[in-house]
Amino acid sequence: MVKDAAFRAENEYRIVHELQVHEMGQLRFRQKQTLMSRHLPLIFPPPNYATQSQLLPIMEVMVGPSRHKEISRVSVETFLRQKGYPAVPVTMSNIPFQLT
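Structure (tokenized):
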């Protein structure tokens, strides 16, 4: 739906959430080099979900095309360790970075 065909082999999952009117005040905005992005912080698992672990079953994180992939990779590894994921492999995409 929103994934370029070049990334098909990554076999990733995307979460699609229809923004509700009452969530407008929770939106966060970030100015990036080429666009202003918006996102809605989500809580995982949902507050009323009974589970043994609070961690998501993350098998791998792939850093997409970017100007500084290696720095991003190190930052992602550090972030995962901080959040309690010490052994998640972090790889880098072979797709070249292109600023349009």
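The first helix runs from residue 69 to 82. The helical segments are 69-82.
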